[in-house]
From TrEMBL:
Residues 7-172 form the DJ-1/PfpI domain. This is DJ-1/PfpI family protein. It comes from Natronorubrum thiooxidans. It holds the Pfam family DJ-1_PfpI. CDD domains: GATase1_PfpI_2. InterPro entries: Class_I_gatase-like, DJ-1/PfpI, INH-QAR.
Amino acid sequence: MVETTAEIVLFDGFDELDAIGPYEVFENAAQFGASLETSLVTLEETDLVTASHDLRVEPQGTLDEPDILIIPGGGWTTTGGARAAVENGVVPEAVNDCYTAGATVASVCTGAMILAEAGLLEGRPAATHPVAVDDLEAHAGRVVDERVVDDGDVLTAGGVTSGIDLALWLVEREFGADIATEVADLMVHERRGEVFG
């Protein structure tokens, strides 16, 4: 069986749970039989990335050509994090390249602003953290007040903890409801809300 690869992009100021929540879901799914390999990656080689709450994370490699790409948010109301990533333009360009190469792209929280800058949300329903709703409406499609929005090859999730629901939905969609349920039970996570889309 061909293994599905998932990569979660880290950048300075990313919100810890936006990345670590989905990572843990995917790693647990692999333990329950999902053919899934997950990595925390950066765009360029680096020893450590400092997240929004000062957690220092050692990435496992650099962005390759994943089947699933997860973009965290964080720092939209500051000068760092997702806002800096949007203004710099490098992360959105990499996201667009992965999407063009066939990756399913998903964002958590204000990571949706990076997807919008990459041109992936035009005309699509999308969710983001409440602090970025007005900005997302100005640059993308229709913002919906949902935890998880599935528009096929592009998915978005609302505020921070919704990244866990996003990852569980991706596990269910790609590997079946049984594995997703086992993971949710192991993590003692009560899934919230219906998936929009």
